[in-house]
């Protein structure tokens, strides 16, 4: 056995010290904590792949607009709970420019990041019809969304889409919907953590069944237009970002400023509710909230109770970024394209040393290179692989924490530095030599 970059005793001691009993279930922040302390004590730089945080500078057009708004005194004023009119207008236009669908500005409501958007959406959807009290996740997905439901006491069910792509999706989805208790269907596209991108035919299936069973689809577009296999950067020209909105009126789109515009720190996003759903009357909501329809309940009740609105100056930033993108003067895809370049290099290194891509295809097409990808290693469970890689100064989270039933890890490309490719290649050479029997 060749020595590992990090002493095993150090890593094992830290895992025990922090009370992590099963490394397969370690949270992102627990993995990050072990990596940070091990890095400090050993003096060996970690290749950190566990945190899904943007690794690029914030869009300058947004920063300039927000600074200008602050300098002009906007901080003294409460924002409108429905959102700043200019942002609502630009959000509607942005959706038309890059998704190719029409949503009125009325239904485009700014939120303090998509996290708040999902929380308010979960509250509204779960209270709309007393017969429908359960949220369905098409997993793998963002673990914190399930935590949100746990916090509010709402039930949920999940299934791993790995074995249910294409024609198999409809039957699996309907097996849950036919029970009549599903209020919302949730998925991300591109997907965190697997980076699968649901095809139009799959989204058509979801939309058809959502209409048939009167269920709301919450489409998380946190990684907006980041399917780098397609040219999605030209406003008002196809191809457009794939969406279920073409196939049903029962939808909520969650658009975040965090990844597409690298504006994570200001907690800004827009929740876009279809025109029909925004004005839909639900008797249970009306009885509880003075006769209000779905959209007004979302904004004037849920968001008002949560935060009294969204950061005023950040709304100026989001409006400016969306306007510049729709005008064609700011190519946000060009900025974030580096994530795809990093993924391609990292995949090549891992696969050359015996790893495989777990979620490797969108039906018959190789998966896109992007913000995330997934890796596995023959003969190792998720927990064993994540633990073992810590000895080599590589940190990543296990897929089990995302609702996946596959053995493997999520790799995030956001913090990879150019000098780390060579270092990772050398470390994985040692890893492969130390684990040869598992390659048979």
List the helices and strands and how they pair.
Elements lengths: L7 H10 L10 H15 L4 E2 L11 H12 L13 H14 L9 E4 L1 H16 L5 E6 L3 H10 L2 E6 L7 H10 L4 E7 L11 H13 L3 E6 L29 E6 L12 E5 L1 H4 L4 H6 L5 H14 L4 H16 L4 H21 L3 E2 L3 E2 L2 E2 L5 E5 L5 H9 L3 E2 L1 E2 L10 E4 L7 H15 L6
Parallel strand pairs: 1-13, 3-4, 3-5, 5-6, 6-7
Antiparallel strand pairs: 2-8, 7-8, 9-12, 10-11, 12-15, 14-15
Helix pairs in contact: 1-2, 3-12, 4-12, 5-6, 5-11, 7-8, 13-15
Cross-sheet strand order for the largest sheet: 2-8-7-6-5-3-4
Question: What letter string, H or E per element, gives the SSE order?
Answer: HHEHHEHEHEHEHEEEHHHHHEEEEHEEEH
Number of helices: 15
Low-confidence stretches: none
The overall pLDDT, averaged over residues, is 95
**Shape descriptor:** globular
Q: Kindly name the structural category.
A: alpha/beta
Q: Strand portion, in percent?
A: 5-15%
Helix % is 40-55%
Rounded radius of gyration (Å) = 22 Å
Q: Major sheet: size, sense and barrel closure?
A: 7 strands, mixed
Termini separation (Å)? 18 Å
Number of β-strand runs? 15
Oligomer: single chain
Kindly list the characteristics that best describe this protein.
440 residues, alpha/beta, four-stranded antiparallel β-sheet
Task: Briefly characterize the structure.
The protein is of the alpha/beta class and 440 residues long. It has helices at residues 8-17, 28-42, 60-71, 85-98, 113-128, 143-152, 168-177, 200-212, 275-278, 283-288, 294-307, 312-327, 332-352, 382-390, 420-434; strands at residues 47-48, 108-111, 134-139, 155-160, 182-188, 216-221, 251-256, 269-273, 356-357, 361-362, 365-366, 372-376, 394-395, 397-398, 409-412.
